Every structure is written in C-alpha cells, then in structure tokens.
Amino acid sequence: MEPLIAAAPAAADLVKNTGTATFMADVVDASFDQPVIVDFWAPWCGPCRQLGPALEKAVKEARGAVRMVKVNIDENQDLAGQMRIQSIPAVYAFKDGRPVDGFVGALPDSQVKQFVQKMAKLAGPKQSPVEEALVMAKEAMTAGDIGTAGDIYAQILEAEPTNVLAIAGIARVQIEAKDLEGAREALAQVPAEHAGHAEIVAARSALELAEEGEKAAGAFAELEAKLAANPNDHQARYDLSIALYAAGDREGAVDQLLDLIRRDRKWNDEAGRKQLLKLFEAFGFSDPLSMDARKRLSSILFS
Fold it and tell me: Which GO BP annotation is one of this protein's (predicted)?
C-alpha cells in the first residue's frame, strides 16, 4: 500500500524565499493550510541581519506549525509597494489569506519566539501523521480488514518502533491471523515502562485467551455433553466459555462465565470472575458487551 506516514518537514523546508511572482502561492494560498510569517528585508539592513536568524530559529522550533517566507525588497520593489512597506525589517503573519498580525523593527529573541508561538497556535490542534494512521488502522480492525490494519501498524512501527498503540495493534492483528508466536514476539518489544498500558494489557489478555482457545478448540460436543449430564460441572462450563471465545462467539463466552459465577462464584478461587475480567480487558472496558456484562455481573454478585 502507499506510504501513509510522510517524514516531518525538514527544517530547510520551513523557510523559503519568495517574490512578486510567487507571493500569492507561497503566502496567501499557503496560509489557508497554516500560518505564514513574511519577513521583508534587504541585504544592507543591519537590524534585518539580527532579526532574520532569530525568526528562522523560532519557526524551525515550532516544527511545522508555522512557515516563514522571506522577501528581499530590493529585488521585489513592486511587492514592497503593494504591501506598503515603509521601514524594514517588517514582519507580517498571514492566516486564511489575510494578514492577522505583524511588527516593524528588530525585537529581542524572546519576543520573536513569543510572536512565532502565538502564530503557531492559530493553526489549532492537528493530528500528527502517526496519529492519523493509528485512527485508520483502528477503523480497519473494526471493519475486519486485518490486512490493511497490519500494513498500517507496520508503517507506524517503522517510523516509531516503540509506539505502544502500534505494538498492541500489530499484536491484535497477529492474534486475529492466528499467528500467536508473532503476537508474542510483538508484545516482547514493549518497553518496560509501558507494560501496564491499557492497550498492552488488553492485547496480552487477548493473546492468553487465544492460547487457551487453541487447547479447547474442537471440544464443543464433549463439553456440551458433560454439561447436559451435570449442569454444575463448573470446569466444563469454564472450558466451554474458552472454546466459544476461540470460535468468535463473544456473547456465548460471557454468558457461560456469568452462569458459572451465578452457580458458584467462589469456585476454583473465583476463576469465573477472573476469566470474565480477562475478557473485559480483551474487549475493552468501554465495549458495549463489556458494559452490559459488568451490569449483569454486579446484579449476580450483589443479589
């Protein structure tokens, strides 16, 4: 698939020279995407030589939130006249096609930085390419397109090898693809300080459930026969829940565990409740099934 995550703008790309012929494209049109700071200067201007580098530094530190365009008024006298430039250095900030702020004369570096930061805020909050890719990957997973989701998570990990959400996501993809060894390897890359992250915990729970499900696969008939003979065979009901989850029947898995808890909540050191919690972690606690099951669990525990 086409690369989704472009490299961050190089520092050199954030500052450019323009003139009369390109001013409309470089400044007016570009300002609809992000604020553009225009520095009107001339080679013979001493204060310009002081202000220009300070502006460039502050713009580069803003990491793409704002751009800077330089206009040499000696080479672009018509443009300087149109902009009514009477003294330099003169600085204008453009947003959405029009000038929104500016100043004339050199300023201390601290004030230059404040000006650039103020203009950068006009751009408003913006998702990074990685954040946008994470949203796309999650949408693909929700739609059941694990191939696309896997490709996107792989691109994210190329850009940010320790991105926790991408590691959890690629592990989920591998679990869905029945590549449990791959999922284990992915989760082994999680930095120690992020081991308790909710998405990592959820992915680990999903992996543990998938591993348990492999062992219980194909045992439906045997387990159902055991329960038909003895509805209080708690181990059979517990194992049936695992088999149902492995087969993709989330609701059935939850129902069996809730029934087990209703029959004997203390069985095997509360194994039913603990397994149900693992399911909630794998689903996500905000998942509608988790929320409904938690209500049902509360009614059982406090009845």
Answer: cell redox homeostasis
What gap in Å lies between CA 41 and CA 71, rounded to an integer? 6
Q: What is the rounded CA–CA span in Å between residue 260 and residue 90?
A: 76
- Dihedral sign of CA atoms 70, 74, 80, 84 in order: positive
Residue 68 a catalytic site member = no
Which one from 15, 30, 45, 51 is the annotated catalytic residue?
A: 45
Residue 181 lies in a domain: yes
Query: pLDDT of 35-70, one tens digit each?
Result: 999 999 999 999 999 999 999 999 988 878 899 999
Residue in 48, 65, 166, 279 annotated catalytic: 48
Q: Name the domain boundary from 105, 121, 137.
A: 121
pTM, full prediction: 0.60
Looking at the fold, whether 103 and 145 belong to one and the same domain comes out as: no
pLDDT digit string, tens, across residues 214-272: 887 778 889 999 999 999 999 999 999 999 988 889 999 999 999 999 999 999 999 99
45 is catalytic: yes
